[in-house]
Write a structure and sequence with these properties.
Layout (H helix, E strand, L loop, with lengths): L18 H4 L30 H24 L25 E8 L2 E8 L5 E3 L5 H24 L1
Antiparallel strand pairs: 1-2, 2-3
Length: 157
Amino acid sequence: MVHQRFDDEWVLASHSVPEHLADSLQDTSISTLQPPGADFAAGFTVEAYQTGLSPAFEQARRRFEARIEAAVRRDIGGDAQRVHRVQSRFSEIRFRHVLLPVWIYSYHWRGKAWQVVINGQTGRLVGDRPWSGFKIGALVLAAALAAAGLWWWQQRV
């Protein structure tokens, strides 16, 4: 029997933020969040949650079950295990709707939408950005020329 405790696990209830960007918000400390004041979002658009409790719990349950199975495998030990079935029981389930201090900036570049997410608690900024094929190609070419020049110079010495 393996016991696992999950506390302050969160599920993103917004469909506006791509999952790979939302994962970077995991470092938000839920225990230090405080209720927002009346002017917290003054001048900003606040997004209501888009995922209800049941779908959010199912999403969390899938993550929990994966972690529970990993704990079972660790508990068994050895090089290989045959785990055919894991039966989980959840208790003391509580939910909180939390408004995270996150700012989302979206922009369009050459017909494609790009997003930047800023964690208002930690100041961490993550996002997607366009890559310039020309600049990347020029960098690769410059590195190849530098390597060839260095090789040529070493051959002469």
